[in-house]
Amino acid sequence: xxxxLITGITGQDGAYLAQLLLGKGYDVHGLVxxxxxxxxxxxxxxxxxxxxxxxxxxxxxxxxxxxxxxxRTVQPDEVYxxxxxxxxxxxxxxxxxxxxxxxxxxxxxxxxxxxxxPDAHFYQASSSEMYGLVQxxxxxxxxxxxxxxxxxxxxxxxxxxxxxxxxxxxxxASSGILFNHESPLRGIEFVTRKVTDxxxxxxxGLAGNLRLGNIDAKRDWGHARDYVKAMWLMLQQQxxxxxxxxxxxxxxxxxxxxxAFEHCGLAAEEHLVIDPALFRPAEVDxxxxxxxxxxxxxxxxxxxxxxxxxxxxxDADLKRLSASR
Length: 325
Ligand code: NAP
Ligand code: G4F
Prior knowledge:
Shape: globular
Bound molecules: NADP nicotinamide-adenine-dinucleotide phosphate, ligand G4F
Structural class: alpha/beta
Largest sheet: 7 strands, parallel
CATH topology of the largest domain: Rossmann fold
Strand order of the largest sheet: 3-2-1-4-5-6-11
Helix content: 40-55%
Distance between the termini: 44 Å
Number of helices: 11
């Protein structure tokens, strides 16, 4: 039985990845940090019905000793480093914490693997945010990076450290440059979930409007359930490498909103309020990924359309809100 260690197992991707790996017969271990409110923030694992099937280990990406101990004890065949301060807007308010966790945290994890289990296959959760002020209209593995936030700068450090450990120490370390991916398990602060939750509230008479920032920004959005398959495929290859994972379609926040409102028979323009306070100090105006390499080498392709995903998210939020009334 193969053993996997997932950092960030309580997050959106960690939960879907754990579900995928359990389905493939893996023994799944997840690193979790202490919280004073509950023993473990396992709401997403419970939502997927897998909380009892994974083994959780205490640790923090900022604490190298906890990572060394975890890797030594678990002896994983595969390590997925998904943990991060992942919200771009917060990275301007907490740039040092973002650097320490999203950036240096990856270096800590690479060190733990290099010292305790150097033959483990390693996955780093890199991001299309690294392209930032895009240097090419369609972004691929060869497109130059131009990070536009402390989050993106931290991810770029982690990305190059992953490449560096592969080239310096021969680690089987791959970096997945994933474009935005969403699901009903997406954190409420991210725009798709904020919209689907907001639309559900309006539909149920719990709210009158929805306040957003820059709705002209364009993103290449896919479904998290599809994207975790690409992570796994990368670690099954004989040779580690870097891959863009994207749908190849870009849509404005405005049009994504329309899909959500229309699903509930509502008109977006009657409820949307633009709030300048929600604009960012520097914006990533447009992202559009070219996943040709992932398609040809991994046989990976997205399976869920933006429309189907947004409708699934709205339905899940309607259900959640109705149940809590
Ligand atoms: P997420 O839902 O925000 O999950 C982040 C996870 O990291 C949570 O489990 C969180 O634990 C954990 N974490 C945060 N700080 C930690 C620390 N100091 N030590 C240990 N764990 C810590 O993020 P996601 O959407 O699943 O994304 C997964 C990864 O992919 C992230 O690295 C993100 O930056 C990257 N990424 C995401 C996307 C996307 O569109 N979703 C695209 C490209 C790259 P708690 O539950 O305790 O908070
Ligand atoms: O949903 P977002 O917060 O995601 P963002 O900044 O693109 O980052 C996400 O995707 C990255 C991959 O490219 C990940 F690496 C990262 O961890 C995260 O998962 O914002 C999307 C767009 C932005 O242009 C933002 O300015 O939506 C715009 N937006 C407009 N109004 C808003 C809002 N974003 C949020 N969160 N909230 C708003 O009210």
